[in-house]
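User: Could you go from structure to sequence for me? I need the amino acid at each position, not a summary. Structure tokens:
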């Protein structure tokens, strides 16, 4: 591993283009652990790419924080030029890598801001600082956060609670606070998804959403948070795979020179890195061939091509475009200058000591306390609390999740399972596709719903079948209590259906800490030895 940045003018054209490519890699150490083989190459191929293509970096997914500390060192040792190592950690490092701090989604802090703006900004600053500290401790130097989208469309299937809120002023203030917190450490921050993915009802992982608004509306709602991020010194801005006819009636924003260069560079004056959203996503992958997508993104003004399906194909295509005169060599040089500027920042004050003591920097008591405060301050409750379980008959703990095969926050040891079990509630665990198999059950039911928007689902919340199922349960009178974890838009639907006396709790978080606090409030807290911070805001 080297911390040395060579003179980039001594690199060949292909080596320079290689620095503009960031590929996806598994965070796990062994090939047999790879979860997405279509996107994550085995070790031999990844090492070959890093060593022969001179790639600029990797984006990691999967594995524990301890594994990432080793994995990042391994990857850096394979490269001849220090790598960008990035991750989608919008909710803290623990969101993607177990063993680190996992925050509630940003919208929880936005909800707090409605009552106490200063407290919310404090929490956002702490979230930025803790995320940056823990990322750096395990070798991650590029945080793909904060989300600058204004989520003013309840049907948004992919942004939703990832956004801080539904007004540009609120989002701008909280992303600024996050960036200011992260600035304490030599890591890169990213405002995404330019020019704003909040008012869409299509998941760009699957298809190309259209943002049909006039330029005046874009300037009023979508752009202000990105202007705030630029003013705060954000290091990079990620493009959105959106069609915006007011600016470009043909090309997605990621591939549009009028949008990336005209709007972002020239109108907003952004001088940092422009990084595409993943180029394997349907929003651009369905638009043109992989070769054409890579060339068009660079032509539009992107400095970093994130997750092309095959980096060799992307590099060859861009190289041919330069040699044919379609792209200028000067454009490549401008991107490399920005890349070198960013890499100089992440190499600042870098010492071996940082990696040796990484464990002591993860999930520190102050970080856990901050998470608990955010969860408590953003929680909503209603009905007749606490719930008094029957001592004469067993009840049912019906837990509904989005996807049974993808719910890392839930297991046999987590509070949503263990606390009701102590009170005589027997577990039934289903997802939205298997609800109808558990409907005809006369037992008194604690219903716990873990639903929020997630990529690749294509739907923001409840399915029509799900709504029918919950309406039937409510009509039957079997639900004793309700806990919703995730989307406030799910809560809005349920509240229109609930009897006034039925006890309910809403938490933005789905994590273990959220479950512990919610079940503590639902039942009598004195019965359980739950370690939950009760400190007041300082």
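Assistant: Here is the amino acid at each position, in order:
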């Amino acid at each position: 591993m080297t911390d040395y940045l060579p003179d980039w003018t001594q690199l060949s054209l292909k080596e320079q283009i290689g620095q503009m490519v960031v590929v996806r890699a598994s965070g796990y150490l062994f090939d047999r652990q790879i979860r997405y083989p279509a996107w994550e190459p085995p070790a031999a191929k990844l090492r070959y790419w890093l060593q022969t293509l001179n790639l600029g970096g990797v984006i990691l997914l999967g594995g524990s924080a301890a594994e990432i500390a080793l994995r990042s060192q391994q990857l850096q040792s394979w490269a001849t030029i220090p790598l960008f190592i990035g991750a989608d950690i919008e909710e803290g490092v623990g969101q993607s890598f177990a063993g680190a701090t996992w925050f509630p989604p940003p919208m929880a802090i936005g909800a707090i801001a409605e009552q106490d703006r200063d407290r919310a900004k404090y929490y956002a600053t702490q979230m930025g600082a803790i995320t940056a500290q823990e990322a750096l401790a395990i070798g991650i130097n590029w945080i793909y956060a904060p989300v600058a989208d204004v989520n003013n469309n309840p049907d948004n299937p992919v942004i939703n609670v990832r956004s801080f809120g539904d007004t540009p002023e609120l989002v701008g203030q909280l992303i600024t606070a996050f960036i200011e917190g992260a600035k304490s450490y030599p890591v890169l921050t990213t405002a995404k998804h330019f020019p704003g993915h909040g008012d869409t009802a299509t998941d760009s992982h699957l298809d190309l959403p259209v943002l049909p608004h006039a330029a005046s509306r874009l300037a009023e709602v979508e752009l202000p948070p990105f202007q705030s991020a630029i003013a705060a010194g954000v290091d990079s801005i990620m493009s959105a795979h959106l069609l915006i006819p007011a600016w470009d009636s043909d090309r997605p924003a990621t591939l549009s020179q009028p949008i990336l260069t005209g709007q972002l560079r020239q109108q907003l004056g952004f001088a940092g890195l422009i990084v595409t959203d993943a180029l394997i996503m349907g929003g651009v992958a369905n638009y043109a061939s992989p070769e054409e997508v890579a060339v068009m993104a660079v032509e539009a003004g992107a400095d970093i091509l994130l997750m092309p399906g095959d980096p060799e194909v992307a590099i060859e295509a861009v190289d041919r475009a330069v040699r044919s005169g379609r792209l200028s060599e000067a454009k490549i040089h401008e991107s490399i200058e920005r890349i070198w500027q960013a890499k100089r920042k992440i190499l600042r004050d870098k010492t071996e000591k940082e990696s040796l003591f990484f464990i002591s920097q993860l999930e520190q008591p102050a970080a856990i306390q901050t998470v608990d405060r955010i969860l408590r301050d953003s929680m909503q409750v209603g009905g007749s609390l606490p719930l008094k379980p029957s001592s004469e008959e067993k009840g049912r703990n019906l837990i509904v999740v989005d996807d049974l095969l993808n719910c890392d926050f839930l297991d046999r040891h987590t509070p949503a399972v263990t606390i009701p079990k102590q009170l005589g509630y027997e577990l039934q665990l289903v997802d939205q596709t298997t609800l109808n198999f558990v409907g005809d059950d006369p037992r008194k039911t604690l219903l716990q719903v873990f639903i929020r928007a997630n990529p690749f689902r294509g739907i923001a919340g409840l399915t029509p079948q799900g709504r029918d199922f919950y309406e039937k349960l409510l009509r039957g009178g079997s639900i004793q209590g309700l806990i919703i974890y995730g989307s406030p838009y799910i809560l809005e639907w349920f509240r229109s259906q609930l009897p006034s006396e039925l006890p309910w709790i809403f938490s933005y978080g789905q994590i273990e800490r959220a479950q512990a606090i919610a079940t503590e409030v639902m039942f009598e807290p004195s019965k359980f030895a739950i370690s939950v911070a009760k400190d007041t805001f300082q």
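One structural detail worth keeping in mind: Residues 351-356, 526-538 have pLDDT under 50 and may be disordered.
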